[in-house]
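Q: Two folds, back to back.
A: First:
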Amino acid sequence: ENDLRTNKIIFPFTFHVKAYFSTLLSPLNSHDKWHVKARINDGTNYLDVDVSDSILSGMIGFSAKEFNKLKLGSDVHQRKIMQQGLQNCQQTLSQINCVMEIIILNPSAVPLLIQLKQSTIYNMKNLITRVKNCCH
């Protein structure tokens, strides 16, 4: 079991934080999978993370492979859909403030943001309880 008080952490290590995206650190990349590096902030500190392909695919509305295929086509309607998806992703990233699930696979790995959850009373009570138990 992980114990942050004694710095005893077993990898992979998963944790949750209520945060927002403060900065995008890299351009959105669409080789085989979507990829972007971002800085998230919980109001007390920040963490640089890689945003998972599944989160980005959900925001954009299609996978990176689908995007790359559509990009090669000449269909104007498809291009509009692609642009809309990218704009939706950018807007969502700039406005979202929620509970984020992050995994660190090993001590040298970049933290990976794997899930976004809407803030609920239940989430907040759990986070408050965990902080109280951790730090007291």
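A: Second:
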Amino acid sequence: MVLVPVTGSSVSSTLQRNTKEYGKKFLFDGCPDTCWNSDQGESQHVGVRFAQHSSVKRIKIQFQGGFAAKACQIKVGGEVQDTIYPVDSNTVQEFSVNVSGTEMQLVFSGFTDFYGRLIVYLLEFHDT
């Protein structure tokens, strides 16, 4: 699997606006001890930008158990291209998808946390 590098990102929120400890940069740092932690809300999303138009065939994501999403729409240009259905688990989950573009947005729903918070330790995009 070839990793598609993320050159820019945005998130819907960060827990108590504490980007030093829970910011979006921790989604892509490769360190298993750091994470993005969203604040509470009905909707959470992660936007990513790639250096060039990229085909994404696999997405890897790791939540903290109890702070996961049950569904994730993958949008390109505001249109839903695919939907994945994670489980409430601490393990790295891998999903086959078929989306392409220079920017994508992952829109999470169906939170396992009562307040709608997410904790994500890993988010990767692969082209094979």
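Q: And?
A: The CA atoms of residues 73 and 91 lie 20 Å apart.
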